[in-house]
Amino acid sequence: MAFAIVFEPAIDQVPVGVRTTLRDRLLDVASVLETIPPGSVVMDSMEQSPMQLQVEGWRFRYNVDRRNQRLRVTEVIGPDRKH
Fold first, then answer.
1. How many domains does the chain have?
2. What integer pLDDT is reported at residue 83 of this predicted model?
3. Domain containing 42 — which CATH number?
């Protein structure tokens, strides 16, 4: 089963090119996650810690939810914000 990508909050304010690159990178992450065996300490660690991707100055924090097969983007930080 493939991972779904869920955006909470919506990312409508993010430029289209950045959204496209973000989705491509998250799909790459999902492909790798599918190769990690169940019960792996690597997966346990990834599920317990927020992850982050940076695209053209935008930062996107996301969580890995293996049980529900989701990558959930939980925070969007624009290029003009330090955090």
1. 1
2. 53
3. 3.30.2310.20
